Each structure stands twice: as C-alpha cells, then as structure tokens.
Amino acid sequence: MSQVEEKTTTTGTTDAPDSTRRSFLRTLFGTAGLAAVAATPAGRMLEDKTDISVYTIGRQTGAVPEIDTDADVITRMNGDLARALQKQPAERRWVMVIDLRKCVGCHACTIACVAENKLPPGVVYRPVLEEEWGTYPNVGRRFVPRPCMQCDNPPCVPVCPVGATFTNEEGIVEMNYERCIGCRYCITACPYSARTADFGFTYNDGLPIADGLIIGQTTADDYERISNFEYGRGYDRPEGERSSPIGNARKCHFCQHRIKEGVLPACVTTCIGRATYFGDANDSFALVTGLITSPNVMRLKEELGTEPRVYYLA
Amino acid sequence: MADTTIDARPKKRRIQFTWRNTDIFWVIGVVLLLIGSIGLYQRMTQGLAPTALGSYVPWGLWVGFYDYLVWLEVGSLLVFTTLVYLVSFKRLAQLKPLVLFTGFTVLLMALLIVLLDLGQATRFWHVIIYPTFSSMITWMVWLHILYMFILVAELALVLGIVKMNEARAAKILKLLAYLSLPIGLGLIIVSGSVFGVVAARPLWNTSSLPLMFLVSSLAAGSGLILLLAVLFWPDKKSTDYVEVVTRLSRITAWFLLAGIFSASVIGFTTLYGGNPSRTAAMQLILTGPFWWSFWIVHVLLGVFIPILLLFFRGHQPKWAGIAAFLSVVTFVAVTLNVVIPVLATPELEGLATAFVHAKLNFDYVPNLMEWQTILFVFGLGGVIYGLGLRWLPILEKKN
Ligand code: SF4
Ligand code: SF4
Question: How many domains in chain B?
Fold first, then answer.
C-alpha cells in the first residue's frame, strides 16, 4: 500500500501531490491542451467526473481508497464520502443511519455538535432522547439521537413566508439566516422538533466579571463570540448586537461545511458506540446503503409522509 | 359608562359623548403605555430572550392576542358590512365611521404585536419582497396589508379627509365595502389555516379550524359592534336604538351558539377518536393547569352568561352592553387556548429532558414582560383611539 493510500485509509483526506486529477489530465492532454479543455463545459465535466480514483475535496486531494468492508466503519465511511464527492451534488443522496442497539446514551454527539457549530445556550441540533417503557420490573429503555431528518418532503420549507429555508441541490434542508425574519413558523411545522430558535444567549451571560479570579473568562467569552462556520460562512456574535443567526430559526445541516471538505459530520466521528453512520445512499457500495436496505430499518413518524433521510436500526 | 353617554343636549347634532368621556381612552392609554414601556424596552434591547417563549413553545401570548385582534377587527367589519349593505339594516349605517375607526385601531395593534413577535423584526419587509406563497403567513400578511389599505381608504372617505362629491364617495364606499368582504373573509380563513395546515400538530391540523376561526370572528365582531352601539349610539332615547341593540343582541347570540357548535364538533371528534397526539392537547385545554381559562373565562363568562343575557335581556341596552363586553373581552381565551396547549404537547417522548435549558421546555406561562408589552400595545391603541375620537369627526351622525 502506498504512503498516500495508507494516509487516506486512516484519515480519509490527505495531500497527494503525485496523484492529483490535474496531473492525470496533464498526462492525458499535455499541459497546453489542458487549459483549453478545462475551459470548456466538457472540460469541466472531465475535471469533475472523469477520474474517480483520485479526488479533490475542498483544499485537499488524494486517492479514493478501495472499498474495504472489513475496515473500521469510520475508515470505510471516509472512503464512501470521498467517492460521493466526485459526483455532481444532485447525484448524491446523503443519509444518516443511527443504530439504536449501539447507542449508549452518552450524549457525545450532542456535545460534539454544540462544539462544532458553536451553538449558544438553548440551541441544540442533535439531542439524544431517552425513552422508557413497561412497568417495573418489565421495563425497556433506549436512546434516540434526533438530528434534523433532512426530510425529502420537509414540512418546514413551504411554510416559511420568505423562502429562508429550502432544500439545496444535495437534498439538505438549509437556512438562509440573512433572509429569515424569525417568525418561527417552521419550528411549529417540524414534526420532529428539530428546529430551535436562537434567542441570543451566551454561556458567559450573567457570570460576574472577576478579572484574574475567573480564569479564562475573557477567552471563553471571545471564543463564544467569534464565528462558527455553518454553511461555509462566518457568523460571529459581537457583544450588544443582535445579528443573525440571533433571532433566527436554526437546525442541523449534516455539517455541510465539513462534508465539503471531505470530513464526516461531527456527530458521526464522535460517536463512541459507532452507532451513527453517514454516506451517499446512491452509492451501492456505501456502508449506509447496505444498512438502510436491512429489514430492521425504520424512520420516525413515517406516516406523515415527510420521507426522512435519517434511518434508525432497531 | 353607557348611561353617562346619554346626551344632555339632544338637539345638538354632534357630541354624544362629551370630550371628557372619550378622553378616558387616551388617559388609560397613557397609563398603560407607561406600565408597558418597561416590557417594550426589554423587547427592544434584548429581543425575545426575556419572554417565556422557547423553542418548543415558540408562539404564545403575543400570537394569541394577534389572532384575537384579527377576529375583532375583521369580524366586526364583516358583520357590519353584511348588515348594512347586504341585509340593508340601514339604521346601523350611522355607526360606520366609528366601526371603521375601531377596526383600524385594532388592526394597528394587531400588526404591532405580530411585528414584536418576530425574531428579526426589522426584516418584516422580506415578506413583501421575498414572498413564498406556499406559506399561510405570507397570505396572512399580504391580505392584512391589503385590508389595511381598504380600511384607510374607507376611513379617508367617510371622515372627509379626501374630498369628493357625495354621490361619488358613496359609490366608492360601497365598492370598498364589498371588496372588504372577500378580503376580510380570506384573512380570517387564512389566519385559521396558519394553524390548520400544520400536519405536525394533529389538533390544529383539521379543516374545521379555519371555519371555527370564521365563526368565532363573527361572534366576537358582532359583540364588538353591539358594544360600540351601546356605548356610542347618538340618540339613546330613540326606538332605533332599542331596535338596533335588540337585533345585534340576537345576531351575537346566534353566532355564539354557532361557535359552541363548531368548537363542540372539534372537541367531540377529537376525544372520541382517541388518537393520543390529538387528545393530549385537548386534555391540556380541558383539564390542564389552565383549565379555568377555558371553562371559566371562555365558556362561562364569554359564552354562557352572554348568551343568556342576550337572549333574555337583549332588548335592554344595559344588559346587552354587559353581555357584549364580557364576550368581546374573554374571546382572547379562545385564541390563547388554540395556540398554546398544542405547542405545549411534546412531539417526541423524552424531548423535555434531552437537553436542558429554560428555552427548551414545554411549560409555557406568559411572563410579566410579555404582559407588559401587551399593555403597551393596548396603551398605544387607547391613545390612538382616544385622540381619534377627540379630533376626527367620528362621532358625528352620518346618515
Ligand atoms: S426534520 Fe424538521 S427541520 Fe428537518 S427537514 Fe424535516 S421538517 Fe425540516
Ligand atoms: S423562522 Fe425563519 S426560516 Fe423559519 S419560517 Fe420564519 S422566516 Fe422562515
């Protein structure tokens, strides 16, 4: 196994100067011809699609790892992700699979999500619900992580009066914070309570100012206020201002900013039970495709016809 | 208050209510403004954070009051226009400036409340320039604005702010009145549909809800006209007055009965159906911690007593006025019971404890700041109303 491949199978992304698509094309067409071909629509398609053994994701390039069904699931999903990103966005079908038998209810995914998206107090994208049933001593208990279902038929979208929430070309339901007026209609319309409103709190609210006594207070406050990078944009929270996303509805977006860079969503990589899977269900070789075609799969509130993209294994 | 309105100088054409009496509106208005300004200040400086609203109960007192005011504003004009123009109840026509101005004031209050309820209120104009017509809120805002224009145009003509010859003005007024019927009807149906189309909330998601909105709006609206007639009728010794009051009492009582019928249909089918996601919210309304707001405030004070008074004492202006007052004021309990209990019923088990924060709970009780903001809005409405009655030719006779 080459050094490049080795690095790829463990991280999923790597620098591989020798195997870039550009070098492949260069070999194919020669340097002079490359510029001409790349400038045409066909050339762009070639750039995007021709060679699926190497990839360019965000700022990184690397070799797409071979499908290894014995590999650790994270390793395998990294490969799935790299493969999916070679396709046109509309050809991908991102899905998430959560194995309820493996979830131990540690809430690590919730916290990872809070950290990744720098969610303020009161905003949560992926709580883990605890369900109990039966009467003692015949009782059962399970943990149900609940991200946004990224419904194919999302009730939250048509109710928005200003088109501030919409399904993007990859099928992920996004927010346009600058457009949103904060009417919260989408929050009432989501059957999964997957949307929360940002009321503008910070974790340092109400802490007494005690310079030198509360160590790290300023840094913590600064950290809270600098940008998160949802949707690939920086949204900071300067003190005294109420700019977006404050006053807006917020929701899970499958960590699009990470996916674009070839990195799995934060909840997936953090899950200590290896209970959360992510990938392109349009790829027959992807791990998730195998999982969602198993008979023990279910989706929440299926009867509403929302067609969630989050599947549960029970 | 009604008795003091009897004009001591009946020969005079103007002023049935002395200045001092109408001044009560803006005086109370100023007091409410002062009390309410604390809430408004918090709203302006801290957004929605100081409210008791959260992400699980994202709409509460303000949305409830918004719908209540829409019921009053549209219902009163629908009933009035139908009676005067379609049923030719001509004697009522002299209340037109007053009914229009009352509707206009209530409309301003409704729009202000809903504006304050927006998380990013300064972007309200997005609904105009980026409208999504699949959203009931878009329709509601557009119809409301259209309705406002019609009302303003009618008022401008009725009050003589726009001068034109009388015959032409009457023609345009008639046209505007007819136009206000479908727009008003649409506005009420759409404001009911804002809730009715939400499949995620089973108790809202019924086709009878918009109809229930319509019936309730007509009941509240006719009650408001009756109240206005009792308070401001020019010549309270005339037989016209008694006839108008008696007729309006009957109409209000029948609308209240229709309201009972439509609410009962929803209630019985829900409880009989036994679908837990529907019955849970219904149980919360009927037997939850705020059961009294439904049974005592709405059913007893707002419907039962007024119906009895209107049917049996409806020809006596004093009792009719009390019944109308009770009914109009307590109707807010209905909209609050439509909005809040449904949202306070968790959509998924375990949500309440999965991630803990004050804004992630289902136990919504409107707090002082929210009430203060409501007082501010009512204060502003009171000031506008009082000053309007004082300076505009509203209480003149218009035959
Ligand atoms: S889960 Fe809720 S927020 Fe997510 S797409 Fe579906 S309806 Fe919209
Ligand atoms: S809160 Fe924002 S995204 Fe949600 S419906 Fe209102 S405007 Fe649209």
Answer: 1
